Amino acid sequence: MLANLLKGAAAAAALAISAAAPARAVDLQFYFPVAVGGGAAETIQALTDEYMQLNPDVKIDAVYAGSYQDTITKVITAARGGNAPQLSVALSVDMFTLIDEGLILPFDDFIKTEEDKAWLNSFYPAFMENSQTGGKTYGIPFQRSTPVLYWNKAAFAAAGLDPETPPATWDEMVEMGKTLTRRDANGNVTQWGVRIPTSGFPYWLFQGLTTQNDAILANADGNETNFDDPRVVEALQYLVDLSTRHEIMEPGIVEWGATPKAFFEGQAAMMWTTTGNLTNVRANAPFDFGVAMLPANKRRGAPTGGGNFYLFDGSSEEQLAEAVDFIKWITGPEQSAKWTMATGYVAPRPATWDTETMKAYAADFPYVLVARDQLDHAVAELSTYQNQRITQIFNDALAAAITGQKDAATALAEAQAQADAILAAYR
Question: Inter-axis angle of helices 230-244 and 408-423, to 10 degrees?
Fold first, then answer.
């Protein structure tokens, strides 16, 4: 009898100790690319710290992995070594690569409630095109963008153009570009009409031209490209002609990273670059500037771009569930508003734009709405299986035409043949 009482007391004491013990801490590792100016690292760290304050049993180690390319390389290396992070932001176009490597999990497996389903369905459809395949969702839009046109209003006024009216068509961009291109007494160009970067992410800005010419570069299954479509050839010839025929853009390869600085210093009156540079331009342009949708040809159009959240296989269910909770929180309206205001990236859910915070910001700085509104005309960024190989082939073809090594049709036909040889295995 006494032994039974002692056993009961011991069990009760153990139960009391167990109930009083704090929940076991959950450790998460989060890889994040820092590739564009605008205080991204500071903002993402502040948001991560805020989440940990709200959830003291969660510890998140945010690893700033460098460029997008650096990040995907480090993530894949870590995952292959059995040390994958629980979550990472990587390019939306890396989805097929990560699936092919067997590294990521669909978010659908963690969607349990009606509230969860509503959240998953709350993102802009244009961003979900690079986030879903085979009926499953593998990426959650976060650091998303489209390219937009920036113009120097002072340069427009000095050239006798209406500073409030940017070019709306390809033809208008050429005509305005001719007026804006300035030369000194020796004939040297001191200001180019337009600057469209052709390094770094050349296919992405070029995809603005192909979309405007009503061409789609790849199918939704990621296993077929259309590089030799006559409309793609025509778009590439237009890009080449900006330098060789119209003489409104610097000849040769135009550097991506140097473009904002060239714009600030008056070396180009217009530039195409990511809306992710919007906050950077606002802070550093020494003149009044404008932001507009990319000019149209057969239609308006631009590719989406930027990064998604991914979940990586190899972690505990508890860690993955917590990672999903963090992603749900950081894509929430108020958190997303902070991110957009700090960087210029497009808030990926309409709910963010409905907050009083974003309404006030947009009222003060209406240009933040341009990329959002351009989503009505946007298409998925070029994304295929073996994506890095395919985009490198395509980028090389663009460079060959831009530098005069090959004509546009030949360069693109060769690129298509190489892409076909690689992607045939995925059909």
Answer: 140
Q: Domain range holding 45?
A: 25-145+305-367
* pLDDT at residue 9 greater than cutoff 80: no
* Apex 203 CA angle, 200 and 209, nearest 5: 130
Which of residues 425 and 16 earns the better pLDDT score? 425
Cα-trace Rg, the chain: 25
CA distance 271 to 252: 16
Q: DSSP label at 55?
A: -
- Selection from 267, 245, 246 nearest residue 255 by Cα: 267
Question: Tens digits of per-residue pLDDT, 368-383?
Answer: 999 999 999 999 999 9
Assess whether 345 and 198 both reside in one domain.
no
Q: In this structure, are 95 and 157 located in the same domain?
A: no
DSSP at 423: H
- Domain assignment present for residue 3? The answer is no
Looking at residue 4, its pLDDT comes to 45
Helices 317-330 and 333-343 meet at what angle, rounded to 10? 70
3-state secondary structure of 276: helix
Of the candidates 71, 128, 91, 305, which has an alpha carbon nearest to the alpha carbon of residue 204?
305
For residue 24, the model assigns a pLDDT of: 53
Give bridge partners of residue 61 from the DSSP assignment: 29
Number of domains forming the structure of the chain: 2
What count of residues does the chain have?
A: 427
Cα 390 to its chain centre, rounded Å, is 18
Query: What is the residue type of 23?
Result: A
Per-residue pLDDT for 79 more than 60?
Answer: yes
